[in-house]
Amino acid sequence: METNTPFIKATDVFYTHWNQDEPTLKGVSLEIFPNTINVLVGPGGSGKSTLCSLFNGEIPHLLGGTFEGTVLVDGKDTHIEPVKNLSQRVGHMLQDPETMFATLYVEDEIAFGPENLLLEVEEITRRTEKLLEDIQLIPFRKNLVWNLSGGQIQKLGLAVILAMQPSMIVLDEPTANLDPHTTRAVHELVLKLRDQGMTILLVTRELDDFILTTADQLIVIDDGKIMASGPVQAVLAEHGQDMLSRLGIWLPETVEIGLKLQDALALNLSSIPISVAEALQVLADQNLLRKRITNCEPESSTEEINRAKSLISGRNLEFSYNNGFKALNDVTFDIYPGEMLAIVGRNGAGKSTLAKLMVGLQKPQLGSLSLFDHPASYWKVEALAEHIALVFQNPEHQFLTDTAYDEIAYSLMSRGIVDLEEVRVQVEEWMKRLELSDFGKIHPFALSAGKKRRLGVATMLVCHPQVLLVDEPTYGQDKEMTQTLMQLMESIRAQGVTVVMITHDMRLVQEFASRVLVMAEGRILYEGDPAYLFASEELLHAANLRPTLLQELLNEFQNQGGKVDCMIRNTDQFLDALTYTLNLEDNHVG
Question: Which domains are present in the chain?
């Protein structure tokens, strides 16, 4: 096929899901060319996952609903071409990879696709071994697939697709549960695959500088319509402000800084900065940088945390699974009333295992664990749930009913609230707060990943726990909903609830965490102020983490001889600090 012929050509596509009255896709037209990286972004519920299902025959052949328009894949009309043929041309990694798995063990899952293609045993073995190495799952090859961590499930889902060696891969949030270092590794793999001749459509909640600088096309979808598509710089220049302010799309902090400067100062930048070097150059060109950055706003002290008595205290904890994997090794920590604690570390570091111990799903094998003034052995899970609530990394693992409304109601009724009017009032209040009011009659499993996460949070918060433990709180959320969730967390924290978030989102840690606990290989490497974590290259490297782009910018500024006198947690604070510094200098000169 000639490279000037689209590999994917969608024309005037409308699609309505079988259980919906209004179309999810509304007149979508799109071209994707061979050997290109195409990045798809949009707010939650805009139709990203539905669009992904167009290209391997899931729509119209498997998902039902009403489909109008035309989709050509490598010249073949998806109305006519069988799914078995389309799926060999286009591999689709779903937003929830667990739903793709068909076997019990990791290596068998990778081999399953090539086996169905009736390949020779030697070729199946070669592909399986290579992918186990590429995605760093060799130590877990004999693991049951349901015993993997969320990040490992993401890696396995990617390997399953790559094992089929399709011409195009569609990756729906492939890095959502991955640590920052592994996320970069996946993006580098995507670049390598493109250079080897593969076509890629990458759906992502949060753009980073690397993927933006390597992408051939940026596609923006809003309310089921393609708002923009084309070269990255052209889309950012024309639609960047709208993406940032109206759509709430997570853009790299460097891009945010450029767009906000352009808006505030009415600048006409020749290009929107993406890399740290480009952002610093824009600031220098506009004469906005000084050797010293100062901010008049004092940083709220983390010492306000009540450290008189811990709610949860672990000493020398150890825990191993039946396969011999040691998930926790000599872990000692404390959790205090009213704090916002972030637990971070690479995939498989022991974070989720530690969470299971704290809620009673597992018991420590060695060491001591005190939970709310009693040893862990004292507690039964149902009694402990009155004090600490866990929102799972995969919320669907804790859903029990057939509608979103009933799921929240069940939490209340299981606590002994039998007045149906009181139940109704509380359920409707939480559904409104988390923008779920329109989805009360929908089955929890039919919700998008982001809505599942919000429903999981609602089912826990409605019971007013002392500690809320959230595994990946912002998974699947756009920027606006992330801010809504975090404001909710801050508000309950102000009421005395302790919030513990297990997260790979370093922006979340930098902006909101009062304290951070860093884990690696089942051990705690550091416990304390997040600022120290981001200042320590050695600690970040040991934990497989990366600083935020904003922190990289501040670090580079200081490497060039600058000095930062204040705590800066987000781009707004950075720009405020620049403005304050300039005003201070002008007043001094005056």
Answer: 8-239 (3.40.50.300), 262-289+551-589 (no CATH), 305-547 (3.40.50.300)
